[in-house]
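user: At home tonight, take the chain set out below, taking as long as you need, and be ready to discuss the fold:
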Amino acid sequence: DYCLRKKGVEETFPFDEQTLVFKVMGKMFALTGLEHAEFTVNLKCDPDRALELREQHPEIKPGWHMSKTHWNTVSFEGSLDDAFLCELIDHSYELVVNSLTKKLRTELENL
């Protein structure tokens, strides 16, 4: 629900019926496998911050099936509080928005 409240976001299943992907203006910023017992989400992250987060929090690991440099897999069932999880989602969303073309950023602003 939190991801869908963000501007320009859609949820899709581009790979299969089990992998839920959240995109902003067509670009992926969060994905989760619905078939897994543990609820984890892959989130984009600044490479330096990604390393720091992995060192500080056992719930944050290198992105599973993703670029280990730019993605983390975050357990939403561990001890991380909701505010921190939302901050990680916000960071991922903002990284993707900042990488959009000027045309797409303008379209997003006008939504």
Notes: The mean pLDDT is 96. The beta strands are 9-12, 19-24, 27-33, 40-44, 60-62, 71-75. The longest strand covers residues 27-33.
